[in-house]
Amino acid sequence: MATPRALPQSKETLLQNYNKRLKDDVRSIVDNFSEIIKTAKIEDETQVSRATQGEQDHYEMHVRAANIVRAGESLMKLVSDLKQFLILNDFPSVNDAIALQNQQLRSLQDECDKKLTSLRDEIAVDLYELEEEYYSSSYSLWDTTDLPLCEAYRRRDSWASPGPGSAQGDGDELDGPPSQETKPQHHLNGHGTTSIEKP
Amino acid sequence: MANERLRALEEVEKEIAMILQCAGNVLLELSKDKHNASFLDRQLAQFLSSVNRIESELSGQIRYLTQVATGQPHEGSTYSARKDCQMALNRAEYAKVKLGELGRTCELMLDQQQ
């Protein structure tokens, strides 16, 4: 099966074609320009009358000027083709551009994540204090199976260094009876306490 | 981020336009009754130097491409880094939205207390 070739020419033929176009267009511009200058020279009347010669010269200059403009347009098209070829096939610069872009994107991502991490740390500190305030106030409703973060930290610290009467921490100052929970399980979701709240 | 070579080709395009401009100026000056010789010389010199410069620059670019081009397609991409960055920006945006809600809730509670 004959597959249709997307690129009808090889790379070398394409570049030779570019070279040829460049030489042809530059030569066309220079030759036509010099011919116009030569035609502008006023000569003595020859076989044809001056009016006819003038008309002929006028037409020739017109055509040569159009040729110069066409060659200029062709050069612009060549430059555009070269730009396209460069973007697609100049691997060193494409690799550099990709590496630079990757580096910029990664640095932006790192900066973003660093700022989010510092924000998280600041908010965690404030949250700890807020929870301590909230769960030691009369506004919170919590059951015995859950502990607020501050209470959990206190208990963990007291278990780490056990001492007389230190298992309850400071949360029971309003009430005499000990904690109702007997097992050391606690949930660190900020919804539990011991027996501070009394109806 | 534009490539140096692409910038050089942009300059070449401007030079081509200047070539045509110089040629037109020369012929315009010749069409007058009295010619300004120095102006003609200047424009002609500029025309010729621009033509030479364009030819040498474009030949250099084509020579470089002859050495560098392989005919194979380039398969690199920035997709993964771009996706990661986009996710980081989404995280930041989400955090901003949540903090905004938190702030509004706090203001609401304070207004109610007052």
Please describe what this structure looks like.
The complex is a heterodimer of chains A (199) and B (114). Chain A contains 4 helices and no strands. By secondary structure, chain A is an all-alpha fold. Chain B is mainly alpha-helical and 114 residues long. Chain B contains 3 helices and no strands. Chain B has helices spanning 4-30, 37-68, 79-113. The longest helix of chain B has 35 residues, at 79-113. Chain B starts with a helix and ends with a helix. At the A-B interface, helix 1, helix 2 and helix 3 of A face helix 1, helix 2 and helix 3 of B.
In short:
The complex is a heterodimer of chains A (199) and B (114). Helix content of chain A is 63%, strand content 0%.
Q: Output the helix-strand order of chain B.
A: HHH
Q: List the uncertain runs of chain B.
A: none
Radius of gyration of chain B: 31 Å
Spatial separation of the terminal alpha carbons of chain B: 56 Å
* Shape label of chain B: elongated
How far the N terminus sits from the C terminus of chain A, by CA atoms, comes to 89 Å
Give the quaternary arrangement of the chains. heterodimer
General form of chain A? rod-shaped
Helix content of chain A: 55-70%
Biggest sheet character of chain B: none
Alpha-carbon Rg of chain A, integer:
44 Å
Fraction of residues in H or I helices of chain B: over 70%
The percent range for strand residues of chain A is under 5%
Poorly predicted regions of chain A are 1-8, 165-199
Largest sheet of chain A: none
The tally of strands of chain B reads 0
Number of helices of chain A: 4
Structural class of chain A: mainly alpha
Total strand segments of chain A: 0
